[in-house]
Amino acid sequence: MGKIRDSADVRALRFAVGFPVVLAAAFVGCALLIRPDLPEPLAVRWTDAGAADFAPFGAVVAIGAALIVVVGWALLLQAVPLSRPALMRRFMMGAGLAVSLFVTTVLAAMLVGQLGLPDARGSRVDVAVLAMGSGAALGLGVVMGLVFKADERWSADDERAVREALERELDPELARDSISLWVHARSSVFVMLGIATLFPAALLTIAVPWLAVLLVAVAVVAAVFLFARVRVDRTGLRVFAAGVVPVMDVPAAAIETAVPELVKAADYGGWGYRHHGGTTAMLVSSGPAVVVARSDGHRLAVSGGSPATADNVAQVLTRVAARARRDGGAPPVRP
Predict the structure, then answer these.
(1) Structural domains of the chain, ranges and CATH numbers in brackets
(2) Helix, strand, coil % (nearest 5) of the chain?
(3) What are the pLDDT digits (tens) for 234-257?
(4) At residue 262, does pLDDT exceed 50?
(5) pTM: predicted TM-score of the whole model, two decimal places
(6) 125 vs 106: CA distance, rounded Å
(7) Rounded Cα distance, 321 and 115, in Å
(8) Which of 21, 147, 183, 247 is most exposed by smallest CB count within 10 Å?
């Protein structure tokens, strides 16, 4: 039962299972009440000439009730899994209710259209019942979708967020020791990249389409890797090329010094991720950067965005490195 509660909304599950059954039972009960006024057999399909196909009362009621249950379960159960987005769960709950009521409306209109007739050949589907029932089904479905509360249950992300909030509360200095920023090349670089690739690609589209597509793909990849995400906290320094590809991971205890500098990308091998002259660099442009000296003798250079942010990153790295050495070189466990 615990596993079900972790993966499914139990209240929604009870409604999804019970509502179609109750609705089908109500349909059967109402059909039995009007049974004396219905012809035998009942019409189940009509053409322009009138009733075309017939079936016994028992079969019509049994199949109709089963259809209500099956259609209701098929849609309403889609709103039960907690892994699905809340918006999708709301939509499926409203759609399930509306479609279940619509199926019941069609069956009711079919029976009411045959009331009081000695022979089902002269029957028709009752349009008034069909119209009013369909409108009610749609309206109730919309209301259900709006009022259904797709609760977000406690997850591992929530647990981590609470733990981080508690750590910040117990250690006010923690916020000062954390920084995250994006750095990217200058806009003129992207303009030049577009001119150098997209214009030739437009000309090549006529003659060699596949080469044009390849050129555009290369331009997009090059532009993406002129972005980087820099993350500094008490665990150390992490840098992600294109925001997702990890290229640097330096524990705080391994940092000897961190200083802000104005650098030229050419001195480090160019833009992007580079190994040059014993230095690992992730530079998206020339200008402000943070140069880190590791305790093993290696050096790293990372773009810092503006002079102010580069100085801030250097200060935080210096502070967390000193803390790690003071604590015996054991940095906190990374999430």
Answers:
(1) 2-147 (no CATH), 179-185+226-326 (2.30.29)
(2) 55, 20, 20
(3) 888 898 988 888 888 888 888 888
(4) yes
(5) 0.49
(6) 8
(7) 87
(8) 147
